Amino acid sequence: MIAILFCACVLLILQVLTPFWWWIAVVPFLFGLLFAKKSGKAFGGGLLIGAVVWGGAGLYFFLTSGRLIAGRIAAMFSLGSGWLMVLLTGALGALVAALAAFSGYLVRGQTYTSDKT
Questions:
Q1: Which percentage of the chain shows pLDDT scores above 70?
Q2: Cα distance between residue 73 and residue 80, in whole Å
Q3: Integer distance in angstroms from the first to the last C-alpha of the chain?
């Protein structure tokens, strides 16, 4: 849990300080590569990291100043409501982060052994 909180804080700082959106994949990938002990923990940790950071950021921007923009983008996607756009943003961030963390776990090679043939 400490590793998940640490990665979420690092991701939040990088998202705020740099103009790059792809940190949502890089930081959970490193989490899966370095910290995850099981594949389910990697996927779930990445899911939580992405949902908290991107969902929280989407909610923050929606509540502070982005109602108009979220409503217009939701209309472009035929969602009907800005709230659905916020949920979609959080879900997309969670899915990207979960798959990145799972990929990092698989790159480490814990699930495959060479003696099983």
A1: 93
A2: 9
A3: 35
